[in-house]
Prior knowledge:
three-stranded antiparallel beta sheet; DNA polymerase, domain 1; binds iron/sulfur cluster; Lambda Exonuclease, Chain A
Amino acid sequence: xxxxxxxxxxxxxxxxxxxxxxxxxxxxxxxxxxxxxxxxxxxxxxxxxxxxxxxxxxxxxxxxxxxxxxxxxxxxxxxxxxxxxxxxxxxxxxxxxxxxxxxxxxxxxxxxxxxxxxxxxxxxxxxxxxxxxxxxxxxxxxxxxxxxxxxxxxxxxxxxxxxxxxxxxxxxxxxxxxxxxxxxxxxxxxxxxxxxxxxxxxxxxxxxxxxxxxxxxxxxxxxxxxxxxxxxxxxxxxxxxxxxxxxxxxxxxxxxxxxxxxxxxxxxxxxxxxxxxxxxxxxxxxxxxxxxxxxxxxxxxxxxxxxxxxxxxxxxxxxxxxxxxxxxxxxxxxxxxxxxxxxxxxxxxxxxxxxxxxxxxxxxxxxxxxxxxxxxxxxxxxxxxxxxxxxxxxxxxxxxxxxxxxxxxxxxxxxxxxxxxxxxxxxxxxxxxxxxxxxxxxxxxxxxxxxxxx
Length: 454
Ligand code: SF4
């Protein structure tokens, strides 16, 4: 009789990242942060690529359990399907004691059992190897010993030609040599995780690099709640390791850090700037901006599955651009990547320097970016140290303005742009989308414009 499982592959990976996260996930799930839109989009992308990978092994039997209550049944059905010689099984479930895994694809060929785990990224990471090692261990312990274990990843060299060819789109790599030496580490780790899960309290774990690596933890709202809004994590000129080290030494704010020994000139400079609390621009940059430097906002998409012929997976394409020059705004919406490239090339040919938020996909255009300017100490935007997205930067710039405007994020803008590709969309709806995207671009231009106002 199968017991209810306690460790799945995602929990196993979670436990490696942080045992407190493992405990909270299982025992205090209501404390979890709300799922971010980017995270949801990542899951959806992973799911779509998993389905696409089925085409590598067509005609398989899908044994995916539809709900947690079906896990035990799925394990039994998988065992029966293997015994019956089913050639290909999608979502094959295996359980050993309290550990359960659902393998993406299992193939039986020439009396051999091949296991395939599908990932939507282009590279093999240490986390994927740990994940595969755990799956191999559970399968083996349950009595099904794979002859080989493969990782199916996206081939970075694939060049799209319709219709998409899954054989070319994916790369299949054997991980057996890497996961066999890890097998002896798995049982002790599971024992430790079970012990953690049964404890009356969560383990005491300080915040650290593990809060965002390899995955952003969904308990940051809980663990980081004592971190002040104006904390040292907002600083740019400190490495993450330095920030955590100083924080755990009791330096929580830039003010406290100011009294600390051993700061570099850059760090001292940044703390001084941060404490003044306002946007700061060097005289050199101020002069360049006052020479009517145009503002440029460019938005891009990096689709995992190429949208156009000749593109590679995750290749960045320009979806829209807005430029403000001499108080005149121009908005450009592109329907093909070539149009975006031509737009940037035109700017480049005019040797036009622009102020932008981030590096443009077309690297040879002459431009000024917010992050490069900050690194060069030409500009300082207090609080930008832990902000990574263009939207966050724009919000910081807009922070002190009177606007309460809610603005969509890059993800939503990308989804709207994708909808425009639907030829069956009514003209009126297309028009409304264009208006929204225009407003979105102008919001970013206005945020950049605040640099000019200072
Ligand atoms: S936020 Fe950090 S410390 Fe807290 S559970 Fe997550 S990884 Fe662990």
